[in-house]
Amino acid sequence: MEFCFLAERPEFKPLVATWYFEQWGALVPDASLSSFEDKLTEYLQTDAIPLIVLLMQDNAPIGAAQLRFYEMTIYPDKTHWLGGVYVAPHARGNKVASALVQKIEQLAQSFGVRELHLQTEQQDGGLYQRLGWQAQERVNYRGVDVAVMSKSLF
Predict the structure, then answer these.
(1) Which CATH architecture has domain 2-113?
(2) How many angstroms separate the CA atoms of 57 and 70, rounded?
(3) How does DSSP classify residue 49?
(4) Rounded Cα gap, residues 128 and 97, in angstroms
(5) Burial class of 43 by CB neighbour count within 10 A (0 to 12, 13 to 18, 19+)
(6) Taking a C-beta distance cutoff of 8 angstroms, is the pair 70, 47 a contact?
(7) Residue 128, SS3 per DSSP
(8) SS3 11
(9) What's the confidence (pLDDT) of residue 27?
(10) Which of 35, 43, 74, 128 would be 52's cystine partner, CB 3.0–4.6 Å?
């Protein structure tokens, strides 16, 4: 397995958009597959935020994760977010999500990010708690109960 940026393999933008739309599209008002794909265009970079990292196996993506700005509008003071962590169903249970999260943490550090935030529907923090993330609060955001977590990178 190896990492690459979606910007380096833009032919996979439709696949990532499909993953995200199928996973989270119902939570976004007026969402469409094309709107998800259009949104990914701003993530097509390797040296600035926002960006998407892919984990590849046999020259095909098996997972994706984002380093982005301001994921939750109710937190204008929380700048940098880990988001869009997705693992293809056939690759689940193989530590792909852990690898993606750790890669985003490393990239964030390389950009000088001191603290990352995330939201998860796993109220106990699940994977993120095991990777050292701390729960900050639980809120209902856009009709979904989520745990908001953070991790200091320095």
Answers:
(1) 3-Layer(aba) Sandwich (3.40)
(2) 30
(3) S
(4) 10
(5) buried
(6) no
(7) helix
(8) helix
(9) 84
(10) 43
DSSP SS3 for 92: coil
What distance in Å separates the CA atoms of residue 102 and residue 61, rounded to the nearest whole number?
17
Q: Tens digit of pLDDT for each residue in 67-106?
A: 999 999 999 999 999 999 999 999 999 999 999 999 999 9
How many other β-carbons are positioned within 10 Å of the β-carbon of residue 88? Answer: 16
> Per-residue pLDDT for 142 more than 90?
no
What amino acid is encoded at 73 in this protein? T
Residues 6+ apart with CB under 8 A from 56: 1, 2, 3, 4, 9, 62
pLDDT of residue 16: 98
Sheet holding 134-141, edge to edge: 2-5, 51-57, 60-69, 80-87, 115-120, 144-152, 134-141
Residue with tokens 């935020």: 49
Would you kindly state where each structural domain of the chain is located, as residue ranges?
Answer: 2-113
- pTM comes to 0.94
Tell which residue, 1, 4, 24, 27, has the closest CA to residue 107.
4
66/138 Cα distance (integer angstroms): 22
